[in-house]
Amino acid sequence: MNRAKIAGLGLCATAALVAGCSYVPSSPTGHAMRDCSGVTLEDGADLSYCDFNGVDLTEATLTGANLTGAILHNANLRSVDLTKANLTSADVSQASLESIDPTDDTLAGANLTGANLTNTNFHNANLTATDLTDATIAGTNFSGTILTDATIPEGPLPGANLSGATWTDGSKCQSGSTGTCNS
Fold this sequence. Notes:
Elements: E1 4-5, E2 22-26, E3 32-35, E4 40-41
């Protein structure tokens, strides 16, 4: 298990898990954020409503982590292991998720506005109602991904694999769909 201790950051978990947590202003979703400096990053960690704004988490292992409502704005998430992580309603805007593998992840309602998703593998991920406005999507794998009600950049998505994806209108993309959803 890969563990890393974070010091001096405005992080959160539940007050019961991290002694000395103090509440800070609410997240964009209105949920209270907590200051949990010193939290340990590990597989399955409860990092819900954590503030990782601008933090470099390159190559961290967050397998099965709960990042619900977390703020990861402008964070460096290159090569982070987010397998089976929950990022529901997380703010991942302007973040670099280049070449990560969030296979089977839940990112429903997440804000990925302006994020770098180049060569990211979203195979079988749930991106329902996720905002991908202005995201860089070149070479991204969306095969089997649920994109219902997601906000997608207009026009073709260069090199994006959409085979078997559930498109924004609920239709199923045919096998071999690349760049556009052929339903």
